[in-house]
Specification:
This protein is α/β, with parallel strands linked by helices. The protein has a single domain, classed as Alpha-Beta Barrel (TIM Barrel). Helices cover 33% and strands 13% of the residues. The protein is globular, with a radius of gyration of 20 Å. The model has no long low-confidence stretch (mean pLDDT 96).
C-alpha cells in the first residue's frame, strides 16, 4: 500500500487512477495506493471509491514531497467528512524547522546525519500524533498512525481491545525495530528516515509494544531513493530507504534471537494488516482466499551484497549483514512469481479490494 508523495502527487482521483493503471501493467505484487491530502482537496477526497483504495494519507509533518497539511480547519474537515481510513505521518513541522535552524546557527550548514533525531525528536512526534488522536476521538474517525518511532507516543494507543474493534491503530517499521541513533555514525544518510531512528530505549519499547498489541502491524516505509540522492550532504539528502526485500528476513533474525515467535511475525505482517485495512480475502491461509504465500528456509544464511539486491536503486542499509534465513519462493494469487532469485513476469498482481 504505497504513499501518495510521488511525482506528480496522487491528490486527485485522476492522478491516483493513473498509478493503478500503471501498476496493473507492471506490478508483480498485489497493490493499493493511498489518496493524498492537501490543505484544499477535500472535494477530491470525497470522490474516491474507498472499497478500492486503502485510505487517505495525511502528512501532518513535511516529509519527502511537498504535501504538508498544516491548516487546522482542513484537518477538521477531513477527519469529520471523509468516510475512509485516515492514515497519518505525524511530526510537528514548526518544531522541526525551529530546531534545525537553531543547530545550523550553532554548527553551520554542514551538519552530520546524527543530528537527525535531535532535529526530528520525540517531542515533535508526540505533539503531532497526539493531535491526530485527539481529532480522531473528537470525530470518531478510523485513524491509523504510520511509523511510530518513540516510546513517548505509545501512551496514545491501547492493547485493551481487539484489533477489529479499534478505531485508532498504529504501526512500527522494520528500521525502527532494528537500528538506533548509535548507527548514524556508521550508516549516516542510509538510515535517514522520517520519523528519525531514535534511541536504544525507544527501540526496545517499540519492540515490546509490537509484541503486546499496542502497535498493531509491522511495515517498511519503503522509499528507494537513488544512491546519488542519499550521497548528498545530510540536510539535502532525501529521507527514506529501500526495505521490502529484507523486511521478512530481518524479522526472522529476531525469531532466531528468540525475541519473537513465527506466529507473531505472521500476525503482525499478514493477519493484522488484512484486518486493520479490511483487505478482502487476503492475509490468511483460508479456503476461498487468494493464495499469497512465501516459502522460507529458516536455516539458509544470506549475506546482503550489491550483487544480490533486487532494488533498482542498488543499495541497502543492511549491506554486509548476514541474515540467518532466506526467502526461496513467493506466490501471488496462486502464481509462483519469485523462485530463488528469478522472477516470472507473466502474471501480474491485482488491485486490493476493501470491505467498507
Amino acid at each position: 500500500m504505497e504513499q501518495p508523495n510521488t511525482q506528480p502527487p496522487a491528490i486527485t482521483v485522476e492522478e491516483l487512477e493513473k498509478k493503478y493503471s500503471r501498476a496493473a501493467q507492471v506490478s508483480l505484487a498485489n497493490y493499493s495506493f493511498l489518496m493524498g491530502t492537501t490543505n484544499n482537496n477535500l472535494d477530491e477526497l470525497k470522490k474516491v471509491d474507498y472499497s478500492k483504495v486503502a485510505g487517505v494519507k495525511i502528512f501532518m509533518g513535511s516529509s519527502t514531497g511537498n504535501m504538508l497539511v498544516d491548516n487546522v480547519h482542513s484537518l477538521e474537515h477531513v477527519f469529520s467528512e471523509v468516510d475512509a481510513l485516515i492514515v497519518t505521518h505525524c511530526e510537528d513541522d514548526p518544531m522541526i524547522k525551529a530546531k534545525q535552524q537553531q543547530l545550523i546557527q550553532e554548527y553551520g550548514e554542514d551538519l552530520p546525519a546524527y543530528f537527525h533525531p535531535i532535529i526530528r525528536n520525540d517531542e515533535a512526534c508526540y505533539k503531532s500524533s497526539s493531535f491526530a488522536v485527539q481529532l480522531a476521538k473528537k470525530h470518531n474517525t478510523r485513524l491509523h498512525v504510520f511509523h511510530i518511532s518513540t516510546a513517548k507516543e505509545l501512551s496514545l494507543f491501547t492493547n485493551k481491545i481487539p484489533l477489529k474493534e479499534k478505531r485508532i491503530t498504529a504501526e512500527v517499521c522494520i528500521h525502527h525495530l532494528w537500528f538506533s541513533d548509535e548507527d548514524y555514525k556508521t550508516k549516516g544518510n542510509l538510515i535517514k528516515w522520517n520519523p528519525s531512528v531514535k534511541t536504544l530505549y525507544d527501540r526496545d519499547k517499540l519492540f515490546e509494544a509490537m509484541l503486546d498489541g499496542t502497535l498493531d502491524v509491522i511495515a517498511t516505509d519503503h522509499a528507494p531513493h537513488t544512491w546519488e540522492e542519499k550521497s548528498l550532504p545530510y540536510l539535502k539528502a532525501p529521507s527514506g530507504g529501500p526495505l521490502v526485500q529484507h523486511s521478512l528476513v530481518a524479522m526472522l533474525d529476531f525469531y532466531h534471537q528468540k525475541k519473537i515467535s513465527l506466529e507473531k511475525i505472521v500476525e503482525k505482517m499478514a493477519h493484522n494488516v488484512a484486518d486493520l485495512f479490511r483487505v478482502q480475502n487476503r492475509g490468511y491461509l483460508r479456503e476461498g482466499y487468494f493464495a499469497d504465500l512465501v516459502l522460507v528456509d529458516l536455516n539458509k544464511a544470506n549475506t546482503v551484497q550489491k550483487s544480490n539486491l533486487l532494488y533498482k536503486c542498488g543499495w541497502s542499509p543492511f549491506e554486509g549483514h548476514t541474515f540467518k534465513s532466506s526467502v526461496l519462493k513467493t506466490f501471488v494469487n496462486g502464481h509462483l512469481v519469485y523462485d530463488e532469485g528469478k522472477f516470472d513476469e507473466s502474471n501480474k498482481g491485482l488491485r486490493l479490494n476493501f470491505s467498507r
